Amino acid sequence: MRVPGNLLVALCLLVGLASSRGAVAQNAHVPVIKLAQLQHYLNSSADTTYIINLWATWCKPCIEEIPHFEALQKQYANQPVKVLLVSLDFAKDLDKKVIPFVQRRQLKSTVLLLDEPDYNSWIDAFDPAWSGALPATLFFNNAKQQRLFVEKPLTPALLQEYLSTKFSLKP
Hints:
Keywords: Cytochrome c-type biogenesis, Disulfide bond, Redox-active center, Signal. This protein is of the alpha/beta class.
């Protein structure tokens, strides 16, 4: 059977679009984790300053501050500083919302999706005073017994202030 030229071109374009979408989705890997997996970081004894930002795609202040965390990751790339962007979106929204968001923003920091729908069962792991509001950020270095929890949007100036005064880090 002979396939008309314009149909063949259309089929090739469709196959190309489908394969390119698959390739893009593979580049934005966002593991879905449980609290036990996040505890690996929370309990780390390494002399590393962790910055765990809790955010969601539906939270406007969260989205506005993400570039600041990306800049920190780049700025402290040669120091023991690790930025984790932990999405609190629903796991069912991973492919529809979270991965497209990560792709559009070209995020370089580690992005994880915490799939723990019963917030009351794990909120205290971050800070007993946390109301559950977003954005929220936990800074810690367990080796140096340093910890700071902030439940508000952060500016680049505040981030630098916290890292330099509380954690003695210089860019």
